[in-house]
Amino acid sequence: MLSNVPLDFVTTSYDLIDQVQAKYHFAAEPYIYVTLTTHLFGAYQRLINGDDDVNYLPDLSDNYPVAYQIADDVIKGFRNSLDISFPESEHKSIALHFINAHTSGSVEEEKSQTGNDEIIKVVQNELERNGIYRTQKNANDYDRLLVHLKYFINRLNNHEPDSLPISEGMIGEIEASYSKAWRIVQRIKELMQEKLEIKLSLSEQTYLTIHIQRLI
Length: 216
What we know:
By secondary structure, the chain is an all-alpha fold. It has two domains: 7-101, PRD domain (PTS-regulatory domain, PRD); 107-215, PTS-regulatory domain, PRD. The protein has helices at 7-24, 32-49, 65-82, 90-101, 107-129, 139-157, 168-177, 179-196, 202-215.
């Protein structure tokens, strides 16, 4: 569903979804990352094509004020990050996405969000320590890594197992072919274990190595 959505649009949407959940302590089911992003990209395409945007959804702001505040933040976020000005009618659609995806939140949800930020911070800090930064040239590959990390975090939060079996022969080949990237990933693995008590599986180490190799 996201294959035709530009990466900067995806990463902006994902970041905003993370931010509003943390800001308003509003827990949403993980599927909102895909459903809201694809909806907003469709709205953006209609906007640039000059199509009329008629929204027949009812105004539920009296019953769901937080969801409408979230919608305001999402619209402002796209305007500030990508210079996209969604029409006023999109407030109702965005709010409804969050209303439908709302799930019971708790203090544990806030702790989870902090952990999510820390995972990305560990990876970015180690990349920077090795002289790897996001640049105009590598922006697409860097953003792909961030999107991958978002999915990794969702799998952790939902306790989903890895689905990719990795053989010792494959690991040996990757370690030999992408030695620098592999060393960086091994350090990331150690830091996640020490700081966050997260164990990186062999398949996750493989994915990260390939992403980082592209940046190198």
